[in-house]
Amino acid sequence: QCPLLTDRGIGAVSTRCEQIKNLHISGLPSITDEASQHLVCEPLAGEARGMNLIVLNLSFCTTLTNRSVELISKACKKLENVNLSGCVLLTDDAVLHVSLNCSHVQTLGLAHCKRLTDRTICTLADYLWLEDLDLGGCSRLTDDGVEVLAMEFTGMVTLSIANCGKLTDMAIDSIARHMINLRTLKAWGMLQVTDLALEMLREKFPKLDLKTVADADFADDGADTLVELEDDE
Fold first, then answer.
1. Positive or negative, the Cα torsion across 53, 55, 61, 63?
2. Where are the alpha helices (DSSP H) in 21-117?
3. How many other CB atoms are found less than 10 A from the CB of residue 154?
């Protein structure tokens, strides 16, 4: 995390790093959609960039909008691992851009993207095959969305639905019925989920690493840096 880094700095990276494959620029509140433009188009000569990116971490770059995701996803089609957690301005349309353009993505971080809805789950199910998905803190996610997720991603290995406050025991039941390959589930901070539902999940999958409120780390992957924005709706 380099909080003083700006769009100009990202432009310099783009100028000097033509073949970059792995880029982590998380926790940068000062960068804007202009930085995303620099990532896909070198600012001095206008040469294309990003074609070889495989791993991209933009988590907690809180001013980025759907426009950034659209630019990057259209140019960086080799992406396999994308982290947009904490990009609080993103909506379901951002996930649609990733899903339509980046068919190789298997690991996706969307934690604390509070504007996302069940529509995101349906989009992911239509276009991607994910093994690792972080939806922690996506407070609009419902049991219906988790049911679609569980039915369509039976091969998922790691899932976080921590702090998804609308979820109930029905969500846990959907996971238990369909996600037979799941190895890690983060499920703390879900006030409408009962201990009984979690215990039944443990009994059915004794090898599952089920992380509940008792296991939760107070430092939730950078969530302490998150800038909470007022919901427009």
1. positive
2. 33-40, 66-75, 92-101
3. 11
* Residue spans of alpha helices (H) in the chain: 7-16, 33-40, 66-75, 92-101, 118-127, 143-152, 169-178, 195-204
3-class SS shares of the chain: helix, strand, coil, % to 5: 35, 10, 55
Structure tokens at 181: 């390959």
Beta carbons of 121 and 93 less than 8 angstroms apart: no
Site of tokens 């349906």: 122
Q: What's this model's pTM, rounded to 2 decimal places?
A: 0.90
Strands 209-211 and 107-109: unpaired
Mean pLDDT of 150-167: 97
Beta-carbon count within 10 A of 204 CB:
12
Cβ proximity of 231 and 206 under 8 Å:
no
Radius of gyration of the chain from its Cα atoms, rounded to whole angstroms: 18
For 27-56, the pLDDT digits (tens) are 998 999 999 999 999 999 999 999 999 999
Alpha-carbon gap, residue 107 to 48, rounded angstroms: 25
Give CA–CA dist 53/12, Å, rounded.
17
Hey, what are 113's tokens?
Answer: 């993207």
